[in-house]
Design goal:
Blueprint (H helix, E strand, L loop, with lengths): L1 E2 H4 L5 H7 L9 E4 L2 E4 L4 H11 L18 E9 L5 H13 L5 E7 L24 H6 L2 E7 L7 H8 L2 H6 L6 E8 L6 H14 L3 E2 L7 H5 L9 E4 L10 H25 L1
Parallel strand pairs: 4-5, 4-6, 6-7, 7-8, 7-9
Antiparallel strand pairs: 1-4, 2-3
């Protein structure tokens, strides 16, 4: 769990002015496999982020609502990679589910694309959408929900690359005992959604996380004619790569977020 005092250390000057926070807090650092890319989340970056996400979620990295003073919130990291927008839309619905649980906030993050030149540093700030995730943000989160489009029945390379860089957290056991869930999207109904969800679960099992699925007691899981599975939320985009979610897909994504958030809150109360 993170206190507001700790969170404000990661605010840039324009955001500190809004909250009345004094001092030059340390700028966020993006942890990489072979080094760190230092970057400032400047006001332009925040404006792009809010413009892209404010209509869809209430809280992104704890800046869109007033945080309780001198108290802490249970935080769920919603981490995804998206190329055509479908997985990003699922991530926003997952955030809605997370924040439907009182006392829990969602932190929406993405990962940079990878290239054939694996040592080339990524641009410090994405052109649009949420900032790139860091290992420190993953370490501090009370729960994790991963999302990736299907790539031949597996998760996309950028997300796997990020997970491959988490060996230090595995060695220290930082993620053990925390809840996690997964979501995906594909063009076709049988495009490998379930194997993709399972592929994302494997590293989380190695980290000792508690995996959260979607039970058939959820009516939408029985009625869906598109995405959704007991392994996690999903979306069928069709050959036109339509990112618009069906009603049942939205519902199941929110259910996944709500279930992970509820478990994280329970666990944090037991350990806190």
């Amino acid at each position: 769990m993170r206190s507001f005092a700790a969170e404000r250390e990661h605010l840039d000057a324009p955001v500190r002015q809004v909250f009345g926070v004094a001092g030059d807090g340390e700028l966020p650092r993006v942890a990489r496999c072979r080094g760190a890319v230092v970057h400032a989340l400047n006001s332009t970056g925040h404006k792009v982020f809010f413009a892209d996400h404010e209509p869809n979620i209430n809280v992104a990295c704890g800046l869109c609502t007033k945080m309780p003073e001198e108290s802490s919130m249970t935080e769920i990291l919603v981490l995804y990679y998206s190329r055509k927008g479908s997985t990003a839309e699922l991530a926003r619905q997952v955030c809605r589910g997370v924040e439907s649980v009182t006392g829990v906030t969602a932190k929406l993050r993405t990962v940079p694309p990878v290239s054939a030149e694996s040592e080339r540093p990524a641009k410090p700030i994405p052109p649009s959408g949420p900032p790139y995730a860091s290992l420190e943000e993953l370490r501090q989160a009370d729960g994790l929900i991963l999302g990736s489009p299907t790539r031949f029945g597996n998760m996309a390379a950028p997300l796997k690359y990020f997970l491959d860089c988490t060996a230090s957290l595995w060695l220290s056991g930082e993620l053990a005992g925390k809840p996690a869930g997964v979501f995906t999207s594909s063009q076709s109904m049988h495009g490998g959604q379930e194997t993709t969800l399972l592929s994302m679960m494997m590293p989380l099992i190695h980290h000792g996380m508690y995996l959260v699925g979607i039970p058939y007691t959820e009516r939408a899981l029985n009625e869906t004619r598109s995405g959704g599975s007991p392994y996690g939320a999903s979306h069928v985009a069709g050959m036109q790569d339509d990112p618009a979610l069906a009603d049942h897909e939205k519902t199941l994504a929110q259910v996944l977020g709500r279930r992970v958030a509820a478990l994280a809150l329970t666990l944090s109360k037991q350990t806190g």
